[in-house]
């Protein structure tokens, strides 16, 4: 069977999970923009103070750090640090031909872990809560990589 085909149920699961993570990353970027516009601040660069349709009355205070905006930026950065490893490990995992149930548990498990991590971050839960969801997602990526290595090396 051609493994990179939507007729392959494992690849289908990967495609859904990977697509959801694309939407998560892109959505977090838009959330940051929304938050910047909502507070009219937290701009990232000096050139953002040039007058335009969105920022009609620029003020130097708009460049000051704003925790509401910075929290979203940190969430976005965290996604960018973690989700690409999932995409790579997950795709290699598809080539290792795991069972469908294992693929569903690991691939969808990562998606759920990332979403719960984001909710915990957005609602300012403790580091321990965020770390729990981060750890779950990280362990899933490592397990997929180890599974793949085991198939390849044996």
Question: What can you tell me about this protein's structure?
Answer:
With 154 residues, the protein is mainly α. Helix content is 71%, strand content 0%. It contains four helices and no strands. The chain has helices at 9-39, 67-95, 100-122, 127-153. Helix 1 packs parallel to helix 3 and helix 2 runs antiparallel to helix 3.
What's the Cα radius of gyration? 19 Å
Roughly how many Å apart are the termini? 21 Å
Kindly state the percentage of residues in helix. over 70%
Q: Which class best fits the helix and strand makeup? A: mainly alpha
Largest sheet: none
Shape: elongated
Number of strands: 0
Number of domains: 1
Order of helices and strands: HHHH
CATH topology (level 3) name: Four Helix Bundle (Hemerythrin (Met), subunit A)
Write the CATH homologous superfamily: Membrane associated eicosanoid/glutathione metabolism-like domain
CATH architecture classification: Up-down Bundle
What's the total helix number? 4
Task: Tell me, rounded to a whole number, the average pLDDT.
Answer: 95
CATH class: Mainly Alpha
Report strand %: under 5%
Low-confidence stretches: none
Transmembrane segments: 6-26, 83-111, 131-153
EC number: 2.5.1.18
Function: Conjugation of reduced glutathione to a wide number of exogenous and endogenous hydrophobic electrophiles.
Subcellular location: Endoplasmic reticulum membrane
Summed up, what is this model?
With 154 residues, this protein is mainly alpha-helical.
């Amino acid at each position: 069977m051609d493994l990179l085909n939507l007729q392959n149920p494992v690849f289908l699961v990967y495609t859904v999970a990977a697509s959801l993570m694309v939407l998560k990353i892109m959505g977090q970027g838009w959330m940051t923009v929304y938050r910047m516009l909502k507070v009219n601040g937290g701009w990232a660069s000096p050139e953002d103070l040039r007058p335009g349709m969105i920022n009609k009355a620029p003020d130097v205070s708009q460049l000051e750090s704003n925790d509401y905006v910075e929290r979203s930026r940190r969430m976005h950065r965290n996604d960018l640090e973690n989700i690409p490893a999932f995409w790579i490990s997950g795709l290699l995992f598809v080539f290792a031909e795991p069972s469908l149930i294992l693929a569903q548990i690991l691939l969808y498990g990562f998606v759920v872990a990332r979403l719960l991590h984001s909710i915990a971050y957005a609602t300012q839960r403790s580091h321990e809560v965020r770390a729990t969801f981060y750890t779950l997602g990280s362990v899933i990526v490592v397990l997929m990589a180890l599974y793949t290595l085991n198939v390849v090396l044996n």
